[in-house]
Amino acid sequence: MNVPRVDLASLSLFTLVARTGSISKGAGLANLAVGAASKRLSDLEATLGAELLKRSSRGVALTPAGQSLLQHAHRVLSDVDLLVADLSDYASGSLGVVRLWANISAVTQFLPGDLASFAAANPGIRIELEEQNSSEIVLALLDGRADLGIFADRTPALGLQVLPYREDRLAVVVPRGHPLARRRSVRLEDLVDYDFVSLPRATSLAKRMKTESEAMGRTLKLRIQVRSFDAVCLMVAAGMGVAVLPRNAVKAMVASLDLRLVTLAEPWAERHLLLGLRDVRAAAKPVRMLLEHLNPR
Predict the structure, then answer these.
(1) Which residues in 73-112 are b (16+ Cβ under 10 Å) and which e?
(2) Cα dihedral 205, 211, 215, 221 in deg (nearest 10)
(3) Contact 23, 29 (CB under 8 A)
(4) How many angstroms separate the CA atoms of 23 and 8, rounded?
(5) 160: which residues sit within 8 A by CB, 6+ positions away?
(6) Which long-range contacts (CB under 8 A, 24 or more apart) does 32-36 make?
(7) What are the structural domains of the chain?
(8) How far apart are CA 133 and CA 29, in angstroms?
(9) What is the pLDDT of residues 183-241, one digit of tens each?
C-alpha cells in the first residue's frame, strides 16, 4: 500500500460515487469526464491494494473495503475543511468568497436586504449567489459545491448542521372576479377543484402542495408550471388558474395585476426557511461571518 499516493481529489470523487451509486453521476458532480473518473478510482484501488467498488450495469456498490474507506474519507475531508478554515483566519487583504445557494423564496423576499447590509460591512468578501431548488441546495452542500445554503423546511438535510433563518406565510392568488376572491380565508379543500398554476415539481413549494393534497386523497389539477413567482402571477392574471405563493414575496406583483390574495388557513402554510452547512467549525471565516449575519445570536 502506497499511502502517500492517495490524493484528496480521488477521495472526494470516491465519496461522490459512493453516495450516488454511479461513476457517471459522481464524475458529473466532480466535473470530471467519466473515463478520467473511472481511471482515478482504479488507481485508488491499486494504490490501496483493495477492491473498493463492485461494478455492474446497474451502477456500483461498495465492497467491505469500500465501506471502511468511506468512513475514513469523510473524516479526512472534514479535517481538511477544518484546516483550511483555521488558516483562512490568518488571511490578509481580500477575505475571500462565499458560495451561497438559496431557494427562490429566500432570494425574492429576504436576501437582497441581508446581503446588501453584509456587503456594506464587509467589502472584502464576495458573495456568489445561486438560486436553486431546496433539494439541490442540500446536495450541493453535501458535495462541497456550496458553502452555505438556504432552503425550506421539510427538505431532508441529513448530514448538515441546520439553523433557523426566516419565516414566510403562504397565501392563495386568484383573479379579481374569481369565486374565492371575496373570501377572507380558504382551506386546501376549497382549492382542489380549480386549475392550478404551479412552480416546477422539484421545488419545495410544489412538493408541499402535492403532499398535502394527496393526504386528503386528492390530486391537484396542474394546468401549467412556470419557473418564477412573477410568471405564476401573470398566468393567474391571464385566467389559467389559481396559485399558492408566499404572501410577502408577491404582494407588489398582485397589486399591480389587480389580483387578490386570500389567506390559506392551513397549519402548514407557515413555512420556515433554514440555513444549512456541513460543519460550522470547519467553515472558512467568511462563511462564518455571513452565517452570523444571517442568524444573529
Answers:
(1) beebbeeebeeebeebeeeeeebbebbbbbbbbbbbbbbe
(2) 70
(3) no
(4) 17
(5) 138, 141, 142, 149, 276, 277, 278
(6) none
(7) 3-88 (1.10.10.10), 96-166+272-294 (3.40.190.10), 169-268 (3.40.190.10)
(8) 16
(9) 999 999 999 999 999 999 999 999 999 999 999 999 999 999 999 999 999 999 999 99
Q: Are the C-beta atoms of 81 and 278 separated by less than 8 Å? A: yes
At what angle are helices 229-237 and 247-256 packed, to 10 degrees? 40
**Contact status, residue 61 vs residue 260, Cβ threshold 8 Å:** no
Q: Which three cell numbers stand for residue 169?
A: 406565510
Mean pLDDT calculated for residue range 152-171: 96
Closest CA to 194 of 158, 167, 220, 225: 220
The cell 394546468 sits on which residue? 223
**Strand partners for 195:** 221
- Among 63, 50, 52, 61, which residue's Cα sits nearest to residue 22? 61
Q: Are strands 148-152 and 96-102 parallel, antiparallel or unpaired?
A: parallel
Range with lowest mean pLDDT among 68-77, 102-111, 163-172, 261-270: 68-77
41: amino acid identity, one letter? L
User: Are 138 and 160 in contact, with CB atoms under 8 Å apart?
Assistant: yes
Q: Which residue has the cell 482504479?
A: 42
pLDDT single digits (tens) 264-280: 999 999 999 999 999 99
CB 129 within 8 A of CB 107: yes
Here the cell at position 199 is 412552480
